[in-house]
Amino acid sequence: MMAITMTPAAEQHILRHLSHRGHGMGIRLGVKTTGCSGLSYVLEFVDAQGEDDQVFGCGEAKLFIDPKSLAYLDGTELDFVKEGLNEGFQFRNPNVKEECGCGESFHI
């Protein structure tokens, strides 16, 4: 069975933004073809579930993933990390074979 998880820090960050935004069901995590290594992650708010979306509940937050992206994301853990002045989502994807030097793209 395919699974995507998120840490409590990622869940809280998503819930905080949904609350601030005032609407939305969760976030969509996907991949698109781009960058030095071929694929990059895409995150966007979800206001309506897509017909083919897989939904992963992580506490109160929901992750929506389209079937094409799920094959690349199976087993991924989404985290939200603060390091000094920088903060952002971090993807722990066991399927990644190599990432580009800038960290913006990867390939399987």
Could you give the topology of this structure?
Blueprint: E1 5-6, H1 8-21, E2 26-34, E3 38-46, E4 54-58, E5 61-65, H2 67-73, E6 77-83, E7 86-92, E8 98-99, E9 106-107
Word description of this protein:
The chain has 108 residues and is α/β, with parallel strands linked by helices. The protein has one domain (5-103): HesB-like domain (Hypothetical Protein Aq_1857, Chain: A). Helix content is 19%, strand content 44%. The chain is built from 2 helices and 9 strands, in the order βαββββαββββ. The chain has helices spanning 8-21, 67-73; strands spanning 5-6, 26-34, 38-46, 54-58, 61-65, 77-83, 86-92, 98-99, 106-107. A 4-stranded mixed beta sheet has the order 3-2-5-4. A 3-stranded mixed beta sheet has the order 1-6-7. It has a two-stranded antiparallel sheet with strand order 8-9. The two termini are 19 Å apart.
Helix count, DSSP H or I runs of 4 or more residues: 2
Strand-and-helix sequence, N→C?
A: EHEEEEHEEEE
Q: Main β-sheet: number of strands, strand sense, barrel status?
A: 4 strands, mixed
Low-confidence stretches: none
Alpha-carbon Rg, integer? 14 Å
Instruction: Indicate the overall shape.
Output: globular
CATH architecture: Sandwich
Q: CATH superfamily membership, which one?
A: HesB-like domain
What's the CATH first level? Mainly Beta
Give the overall average pLDDT.
87
How would you classify the helix and strand content by structural class? alpha/beta
- Please report the total strand number as a whole number: 9
**Share of β-strand residues:** 35-45%
Number of domains: 1
Helix content: 10-25%
Gap between N and C termini: 19 Å
For the biggest β-sheet, the strand order reads: 3-2-5-4
The CATH topology is given as Hypothetical Protein Aq_1857, Chain: A
